[in-house]
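**User:** Here is a favour to ask of a fellow structure person. Please take any protein you like and set down a full record of it. No explanation is needed for now; the record alone will do.

**Assistant:**
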Amino acid sequence: MQTSETLAEYAQHAPPINSRNKVIIASLVGTAIEFFDFYIYATAAVIVFPHIFFPQGDPTVATLQSLATFAIAFVARPIGSALFGHFGDKVGRKATLVASLMTMGVSTVIIGLLPSYQTIGVAAPLLLALARFGQGLGLGGEWGGAALLATENAPTKKRALYGSFPQLGAPIGFFFANGTFLVLSWLLTDQQFMQWGWRVPFILSAVLVIIGLYVRVSLHESPVFTQAQHAQQHVSLPISTLFKKHFRAMVLGTFIMLATYTLFYIMTVYSMSYGTTPAPQGLGFSRNSFLWMLMVAVIGFGVAIPIAGILADRFGRRPTMIAITLLIIVFALLFPTILASGSQWWVMLFLTLGLTIMGLTFGPMGALLPELFPTEVRYTGASFSYNLASILGASAAPYIATWLNANWGLFAVGLYLASMAVLTLIALLMSKETRHTTL
C-alpha cells in the first residue's frame, strides 16, 4: 500500500512524458517497418518463392507449399507474445520494442540472402521456414508494445484515436512493400527479378530497421508502466497470471480479432494468388496490374483506420465494432459476385471495399485489446490475444480459401469469411464496453 509520502515522492520524481508527435512517430514507424517486412514475404510467397525454394512440378502444389511456410510465422507469433510480453511487462515497453524490431529485421535480411532450392536442395525451404519463424517471433512482440506505447501515453477520451497510430503502420508497410515489388518489376526483366531482384526489399529492410531503432531508443518509458513499477505492481510470470486470472479476457480478445485477420489475408494474399492465376482457375491478371490495384485500394485501408478510432472514442468500442462486423458479414456474402466478374473495375471495387472495411475493423483494436487487461499483464495479454487470433484467422486463411475455391467455388470462400465474422460478433456481444476503463 502506498502512503501519501510515497505518492508525493513519486509526483516529485515523475517520469518524463513523451510528446504526442514522438508517440505517433515511434508507434507508427516501428509497425510500418515490421509490416513492410511481413508483407514482402506475403507477396513473395505468392509470386516468387514457389519457383525459388521448392521443387518444380505441379505449380498449385508449389504455391500451397509456399503458403504453408507463410503460415509458420503465425505459429511463432504467440510464442513471441509470451517471450517479449514477459520482458515488456517486467522490464519495460521501450527495451522490448527495440528487441522485437531487431528480431524481425535480422530474420528478414536472412531471407533475402538464402540460396535457392537448385543450389542447396531441401535445406532451402527448411532455412526459409526457420527465418520465417524468426519474423513471426519478432512481430509477436512488436504490435502489443506499439499499441501500449500509444494508448498508455494517450488522453483517456482519445485513447482509440491514439491506438490507431500503430495500426496505420499496416497500410503504410503494405503500400511500400507492394510498391517496392512493383518498381522492381518495372525496372527489371522477369528473369532478373526472379534471379535476384526479389531479394532487394528483404536486404534493404536493414536500413529501415536502423531508422526505426533510432526513433525508439529516444523514447521515454510509458508513464503508466513506470508508475506500476514504482508501486511494485508486477507479477513474476505474466503469461501464467494471464491464463490463471484473465483467461476469459484473452479468449474474448482473440475472437474479437478473428474476423479482422481473416478478412485482411483473404483480401491480400489470397486475392493476389487468385487474381494472378491464369483462367479458368483464377482471373488471369498480370502481377503488376494486380499489385497496382492493391496499392490503390490500400489507401482506403489507411483512411478508414483513424476514422474508426474516432468513432470508437465517440460511441464506444463495442457498438462500433458490432456495426463494423455486421458490415463484414454483408461484404462476405457479396464477395463471390463481385470478385468472380473478372472485370478490372469490379475487382478494383472489391479490393477497395474489402480493404476499407479492413481499416474500420482494425482501427479500434489498438485500444480495445490493451483495455481488456491490467498493467501488469497488458503487454502479454494484448499481444497474446492479437497473435493467437493470427493462427485462427490469418495463418490458414489463404490456404483454406484456395482449397475451398478449388473444390466448391468462390461462394464457399465468402461463407468462410462470414462464419469467422459471426464468431467475432458473438465475442463482441459477450464482452463489456472498455471505453472508460482506467489503464
About this structure: The two ends are 19 Å apart (CA to CA). The chain has a mean pLDDT of 84.
